[in-house]
Amino acid sequence: MLRIASYNICKSVGPDLRRRPERILAVLAEIAADVVALQEADRRFGDRASTLPIEALEAEAGYRAVAFDRRPASLGWRGNALLVRPGIDVRAARALALPSLEPRGAVIADISAQGLSLRVACMHLGLTGAFRRRQARAVLQAATEGGEGPLVMMGDFNEWSALGGAVALLAHGRRVSPPMPSFHAAAPVAPLDRIVTSPDLAMLRFHVHASPAARRASDHLPVWADIAPAAVAAGAPSSGAAP
Predict the structure, then answer these.
(1) Which of 1, 19, 70, 145 suits 118 as a labelling partner, its CA being 20 to 30 A distant?
(2) 110 — pLDDT class (breaks 50, 70, 90)
(3) Which residues, including other chains, have CB under 8 Å from residue 72's CB and lie 6 or more apart?
């Protein structure tokens, strides 16, 4: 079983409008995921530096960032980043520019963890429906290039519709997390943060992490899921909220 998570960290700025990266690190420790997709991890302007101290990620949270060789000070690409635990092998990684009126991107990595090889895509889709659908198609095309094996796509989809729009495009023929509200952290009303997996992966549990620390750290709550090969998890529920 592998725990994956997605978290829009809002440049490490909480609802109190204070930048406190240590709060994000504390939430990551609470989730204890094996693979984490971050959105809004870097500053928006200048050298687009990471808002999380890269050295603290390993020392305090036990993660290393997947390298995408874009900006030296950034954690990933256009705010998107992937974190992995020690022992997880990253075989390939690429950054993807998405069609938009503003800079948008996604990152994709091929990893091996606990005997499972899979492709992971992290994205932060745009604010308008037409561009979200175009961006979702671009991510899907890149993520299924060469054929679709075990695949996880996750991030801030910015889709208020439970099962429509970009969610419908990405989830067609795949497993999609329940539409549980993750935004705004203070009073969640919208299921903006989602996880989609290929049908050969079972989503054993899905959870919106609403701890007191998470409510203070960002305007989004992180979401996580426990996944396993569908053949191994036969008989277990395909998805659902954690108790």
Answers:
(1) 70
(2) very high
(3) 47
3-state SS class at 73: coil
Rounded distance, CA 113 to CA 117, Å? 6
Q: Distance between CA 82 and CA 63 in Å, rounded?
A: 10
Q: Could you say which DSSP state residue 51 is in? A: S
**What does the domain layout of the chain look like in residue ranges?**
2-229
Which phi and psi (to 5°) does residue 176 adopt?
-125, 140
Q: If we measure between CA atoms, which residue out of 229, 131, 126, 134 comes closest to residue 175?
A: 229
Residue 136: phi and psi, rounded to 5, are -60, -40
The model's confidence at residue 127, banded by pLDDT at 50, 70 and 90, is: very high
Please give the Cα distance from 44 to 228 (Å, whole number): 35
Q: Outline where the chain has alpha helix (H).
A: 21-31, 54-56, 129-143, 165-171, 212-217
Q: Which of 186, 191, 187 is nearest to 207 (CA)?
A: 191
State the Cα–Cα distance between residues 200 and 203, nearest whole angstrom: 10
Q: Is the peptide bond before 209 cis (omega within 30 degrees of 0)?
A: no
Q: What is the pTM of this model?
A: 0.93
Domain spanning 2-229, CATH class: alpha beta
- What's the pLDDT band for 243 if we cut at 50, 70, 90? very low
